[in-house]
Amino acid sequence: MEAPRWQRVVLKLSGEAVAGGASFGFDAAAISRLAEEIADAANAGVQIAVVVGGGNVLRGAAAAAGGMQRVVADHIGMLATVQNALALQDAIERLGLETRVQTAVEMVAFAEPFIRRRAIRHLELGRVVIFAGGTGNPYFSTDTAAALRALEIGAGALLKATKVDGIYDRDPQQDGAARRYQYVTYRECIEKRLGVMDVAAFALCEDNDIPIVVFSLRDRGAIRAVLFDDTIGTTVRR
Questions:
Q1: Is 3 inside a domain boundary?
Q2: Domain assignment of residue 221, yes or no
Q3: pLDDT the model gives residue 171
Q4: Of the candidates 131, 161, 173, which has an alpha carbon nearest to the alpha carbon of residue 222?
Q5: What DSSP letter does each residue of 4-15 carry, written as one string?
Q6: pLDDT by residue (tens digit) across 148-193?
Q7: Residue 1 has what pLDDT?
Q8: Domain residues for 146?
Q9: Which of 3, 70, 179, 190 fits a 20 to 30 Å CA distance from 98?
Q10: Which residues of the chain fall below pLDDT 70?
């Protein structure tokens, strides 16, 4: 049987993935599908941790642009990621897998606090770990949180699920001639402002040589597929 490319990964999901086709809130069908995709990847023998955004409830930067104090907006965004994590946890556990939600900001009635060694042990025992609350600090995105957690737990790769099938030299929705990269360097992503992740996330991964794979969730089985096929999506590396 073919072995996966990595033993342990961090999967970054957007809040919009939880909302499905809606612009706000939760979509039960979308959450169930995400859970099935994650369970399929976990059943392939990969230790999988998930970082989920909160953009389906509130984006801190957008709320701040509308007049809300940025720190307050980011705190609300952190709470939104916890809501998404709990919804995802419920859906995954209904499929028979064990999960743990760990939060960067303590809220012990709902989840464990993030403890690196405990998270690694959960993964070793075959549990899916969902990291919520971002980094626990304002002004940092959940992309940066995903890169940070990948470093802390010793992940082999950071998988970034998006609406498009990789990184393009131009916006493919506006330019039909846009070219998809199969491989691109961290430095090119930063210098060309390719925009699929923020600069801090790219810099963390570059400094520690963790590949980022950007791929589309559009097709069923996409998460499992990217674990075995290096032609899927775009790989960011040195």
A1: no
A2: yes
A3: 81
A4: 161
A5: PS-SEEEEEE-H
A6: 999 999 999 999 999 889 999 888 878 888 899 999 999 999 998 8
A7: 58
A8: 8-237
A9: 3
A10: 1, 60
Structure tokens at 60: 């801190």
Q: 129: part of which helix (H) or strand (E)?
A: strand 128-132
Strand partners for 101: 130
Overall number of domains in the chain: 1
Dihedral of CA 152/153/156/158: which sign?
negative
State how far the Cα of 146 lies from the Cα of 132, in Å rounded to an integer. 10
d(CA 68, CA 62): 9
Q: How far apart are alpha carbons 33 and 27 in whole angstroms?
A: 10
Query: Which strands sit side by side in the sheet containing 8-13, from one edge to the other?
Result: 112-113, 99-103, 128-132, 47-52, 8-13, 157-162, 212-216, 234-237, 183-185
Check if the beta carbon of residue 163 is closer than 8 Å to that of residue 218. Answer: yes
Report the CATH number at residue 147.
3.40.1160.10
